[in-house]
Specification:
Elements (H helix, E strand, L loop, with lengths): L4 E4 L9 H14 L6 H5 L6 H11 L6 H19 L11 H10 L4 E4 L5 H7 L8 E3 L12 H10 L6 E5 L2 H9 L3 E5 L10 E3 L7 H9 L1
Parallel strand pairs: 1-2, 1-4, 2-3, 4-5, 5-6
Length: 218
């Protein structure tokens, strides 16, 4: 039986926590008198907390002390965690459980590959943690996407060669990381944005069991 490694990003692929990041960053920006729009929030997808705050400060032409910078990052995370604490399995994106269960049925190894340091908490809140054979999150990596480190670690934990791994991603940086790792990249979202992915689907409702079989047997 063919074994492939299936690696899922978290935010925007399994659950939509982007809205919580947006609310938390927006409140932080407001406290500094900076306007922060949803368009700008798009540019923070898959970007680390440090770089996100640096971008927001640059957009607002603001300079702050290192101590305040650290304090604000902590505040943002606390606020974000307070939203996560209320999450439930209702927040899983459409058809994600079906795809995961199909892969488990076909005995395919599954990993998470996410920049989020809160990935394990989120998977527990939405009751999906048991579906994953391996979890690689922001606590396990030193380099952010588009560096492929997160996916290469996931492949290693699954004991599958990178060329036999399939990555589901919603960000440009994530797709680039998967391509650099020599994995099959599947974009979840807008084709105009994720055009570098080998396949793009609006969401998992467009991914048929036949397509999954094709990926496994290719």
């Amino acid at each position: 039986m063919n074994k492939k490694g299936f690696i899922f990003d978290l935010d925007g692929v399994i659950v939509d926590t982007a809205k919580y990041h947006f609310l938390a960053w927006q409140r932080l920006a407001k406290s500094l008198d900076i306007d922060f729009t949803e368009e700008e929030n798009e540019q923070l997808k898959g970007v680390s907390r440090v770089h996100s705050l640096e971008k927001i400060l640059a957009w607002g032409n603001k300079t702050i002390s290192e101590a305040q910078f650290t304090e604000l990052m902590g505040k943002k995370n606390e606020e974000y965690l307070s939203y996560i604490a209320e999450m439930s399995s209702d927040e899983i994106l459409p058809d994600v459980p079906r795809v995961l269960e199909t892969l488990i049925e076909k005995q395919q190894p599954i990993s998470l590959g996410s920049a989020s340091k809160n990935a394990r908490i989120i998977l527990e809140r939405v009751a999906l943690k048991k579906h994953f054979d391996a979890i690689v999150d922001g606590n396990d990596v030193s380099k952010a996407k588009p560096d492929p480190e997160v996916f290469l670690i996931a492949a290693k934990l699954l004991n599958i060669k990178p060329k036999d791994c399939i990555v589901f991603e919603d960000s440009v940086a994530g797709v680039e990381a998967a391509n650099t790792a020599n994995m099959i990249s599947i974009g979840i979202g807008n084709e105009a944005v994720l055009g570098d992915a080998q396949y793009v689907f609006k969401d998992f409702t467009e991914i048929s069991d036949d397509f999954i079989n094709k990926l496994i047997n290719n």
